[in-house]
Amino acid sequence: MSRRHDEHEHYYEELKIDTWVDSVGRRVSDGDSEAIEEALAFLERDPYFFRSGYARERVARQLAHADLTLSQRARARELVVSTADGARHCPLPGVGRLAGAVADNSLRRTLRSRLHSDDASVARRALRIVVHVRRPGLTADDVEAARALVLADAERGLWLSPTVARLARYLWSREWEAELTALLPHHGPQRAAAKRLVEAADRRRRKRPAP
After folding, report:
1. Helix, strand, or coil here: 164?
2. Of 114, 134, 154, which marks where a domain is finished?
3. Banded pLDDT at 207 (limits 50, 70, 90)
4. Which pLDDT tens digit goes with each residue over 123-160?
5. Is residue 81 a part of any domain in this protein?
6. Which ranges in 52-160 belong to alpha helices (H)?
7. DSSP designation for 50
8. Which of 18, 48, 98, 170 is 20–30 Å from 55 (CA)?
9. Which percentage of the chain shows pLDDT scores above 90?
10. Which residues of 147-183 are buried (b: 16+ CB within 10 A; e: fewer)?
């Protein structure tokens, strides 16, 4: 374990992290510029310690509601990209909210490009982030790549996870449903995943109130 890691762990443990996160959150909400800098620096350092994931998630969500300067917004976008690339480890729901708050066209292009990464983990993180961005500008190729990721993830485990179900809902269309339904009569590696996604869509329809 590196000396730098030890110093960060010791520093944030001494802060009593829950108290610190609450304090920074209140100050960020009040527009305290020093608190915003402190929160950004925390995410940029990417420290690892007990409950650090919880802390990063909360801080990212707090920053998503802050009035950031142009330079702070640029730093936040770098945090988003480095998280998608796996260089930092902010939980994706939080960094997704931050991406939605600071996205510009450059970030949109970057996230779309990551959907086609040869590294499936990078593509998955990019998908889980880009769904929080308004008007991401997904092309037909981007949507096809995203659906392939969802189909692959739907095959994992014993049931469809809530995260994958939400992503499928985001990407759903009658055309995709028809493509998935066409896989059901044939035995193959994607049949089980397609069945889970189609059944989830059927459940959603049954839950809708009658007009």
Report:
1. helix
2. 134
3. confident
4. 999 999 999 999 999 999 999 999 999 999 999 988 99
5. yes
6. 52-64, 70-84, 92-102, 105-114, 120-130, 140-154
7. T
8. 170
9. 78
10. bebbbbbbbeeeebeeebbebbeebbeeebbeebeeb
- Which residues neighbour 204 within 8 Å (Cβ) at sequence distance 6 or greater? 169
- Are 122 and 159 in a shared domain? no
Q: What is the pLDDT of residue 1?
A: 42
Whether residues 207 and 113 fall in one domain: no
* Residue 141, Cβ density class (10 Å: 0-12 exposed, 13-18 middle, ≥19 buried): exposed
Q: Is 160 part of a structural domain of the chain?
A: yes
Gap between the Cα atoms of 64 and 127, Å rounded: 18
- Identify whether residues 86 and 154 lie together within a single domain: no
Say if residue 76 is in the same domain as residue 130.
yes
Q: From CA 98, how far away is CA 140, in angstroms rounded?
A: 25
Task: Tell me the three state secondary structure of residue 15.
Answer: coil
Structure tokens, 162: 């809530």
Mean pLDDT of the chain: 91
**207 lies in which domain range?**
139-211
